[in-house]
Structures are given as C-alpha cells and as structure tokens.
Amino acid sequence: MASGLRTTAGLLALALGAMPLPVAASESGDIATPAFQLSANASIVSDYRFRGISLSGKDPAIQGGIDLSHDSGLFIGTWASSIADSGGANTELDLYGGYGGSLAGIDYSVTALAYIYPGGHGVDYFEVLGSATTRLGPGSIGLDMGWVPEQDNFGGDNFYLAAKGEMPLGGSSASLFGHLGYENGDAYDRKWDWEAGLSYASGPLTASLSYVDTNYSGADEAGRFARAGVIASLAASF
User: Which bin fits 169, alpha (ψ -120 to 50), beta or left (φ > 0)?
Assistant: First the structure.
C-alpha cells in the first residue's frame, strides 16, 4: 500500500519496490530520473485486522494493490482484500489518491480514500487520511489520522488517531514495530487498539508476526472479532 494509506493492525506496511516507467532523456544527454513510478504488492495474512477489528472473520485473507506515483508527490492507487460477509460483499476494494512529501525531516501524506464493497448494500464509505513520520535514531515514529465525515452510510463523523513506531534490530533485517490507536464517533465509542510485532525482510519479501488487541468488548459478533489475536503475514513488493 502506498505511503500510509491504511492503518491496519496485523499487517506490516511495506516499503514498495518501484518499477520506473520510460521517460525521455534530458537535453544534456544524461539519463533523466523517471517522473512516474509504478509499484505493486501482494500478501497473505492469517487474519485481516483493521484498527484492531477482524474483517475476515478471523480467517486468512489474500490482499494486493497497485500504486502509481509522480515525482511531484501526487499518487493514486488501488488495494483489495478478501473479507468476511459485509452487507453481502466478500471483497474490500480501496481506491485512493493523494499527495506526499517531506518537510523539516518529517515525511507526510494526505489521502482521500473510498472503501468499496462490490455486491454489498449500505457499506461503501469515504475517508480522509493523514500520516506523518520522522526518524528517531535508527528507527522511526509517527502519527496516522483518519476522518470519516457524515455520509449516507455514516450517521455522524468518525475519528481515528494512532501513534506508531519501528526499530531495526542491530544490523539485521529484522525490526520491532507497533502502534496504539484511538477511535471515536459513529463507528465506535472510545475504542482503543494496539499492536506489537516483529518483521523480517529478505529481498522483496517481508514476514511479520504480531499481537493485536482492543478494549472493545461488545457481546455481539463484532466484539468477538475484536478480541486479542496473534497475526502472521507474508508480503511481497514489486
């Protein structure tokens, strides 16, 4: 996924490999830096968690996406995942676009994202996302923010805020990562979710194992899907 587009618990955000598109050389004869970059990702997870809640019914999910970015900072993309039944849909399809850059050592992005559930009824919605990350020694820390305005499938605003961090383990390809998120509004009332895990990267592949939990304890099915779990994932970037 591109530049923090999704704040998912249990799936490590990959640094996507770039595949340059052909561009013309500069007038000086030097090879020009590609203006556009195309990247793709694919993964399998033991449980698709979104902000602590299982959207796959605690079953494995297959996921993947394609992103196109421009050196101006603009980007567009799409990402999809198999899910448990949601209003008659068994697939989540995300369509998004936004702008990202760097200022005073802080990498940031602002994204408009549509969550679409093909075949579903009354479940599609729109969200505005923001992300900011900075280096902390060999690691990084940051914030992710999400706002769902009032719309057809949301009776009122919904807000999400999460602190996140990642720390490499020495000179190895392994890293510790985690986040703590808070959600309040039309979807959930003062819900907390948290995650801590370990990832290992080798070439285009990244494997991760994490513990995910929330404070949500509803008696309905949603409460069962919010209980603690250990999530494994294997992802590839191209």
Answer: beta
